[in-house]
Design a protein that fits this description.
three-stranded antiparallel beta sheet
Length: 139
């Protein structure tokens, strides 16, 4: 559930909302369901589209991912010149568990090792709510 603070059109609201994006992504990972990410993403968000399409593709092949859960370590507002236009940019540091692909009639295979990453979340407030405009690595 979206925290009340993430509904505020303020710098603090942007910060909390960006953290919420990773909770939504974590839930998508846990359930192999892209809906939580889709519900808060702008239609133009390419990173979000990759998540959504990836889980739909897995489902069409009767496969799923196991592991990969996310822990958000830090989040802070940043300024600068970026490739994507948004109202606020939030830099996060997160840890993601290793992922394993599980397919019918095949042995599970490692997809990604445990990682710690930095990401930028670009968010804007439109139609009375925050949306994720894009997610990417800092350059």
């Amino acid at each position: 559930m979206l925290p009340d603070a993430a509904k505020e059109h303020s710098p603090g609201g942007a910060l909390v909302f960006a953290g919420y994006y990773f909770k939504a992504l974590d839930w998508s990972i846990a359930t192999n369901d892209p809906f939580p990410v889709q519900a808060i993403s702008a239609s133009t968000c390419q990173a979000c589209r990759r998540v959504i399409d990836g889980y739909r593709d897995l489902r069409s092949r009767n496969a799923h991912l196991k592991g990969g859960r996310i822990s958000l370590n830090t989040a802070r507002l940043v300024t600068g010149s970026f490739k994507f236009e948004s109202e606020y940019v939030v830099q996060v540091t997160l840890t993601e568990e290793a992922e394993v692909l599980v397919r019918p009639a095949a042995s599970p295979s490692s997809v990604a090792p445990k990682t710690t990453d930095n990401s930028l979340v670009f968010v804007s407030f439109a139609n009375e709510r925050w949306q994720v405009i894009e997610v990417g690595a800092p350059s």
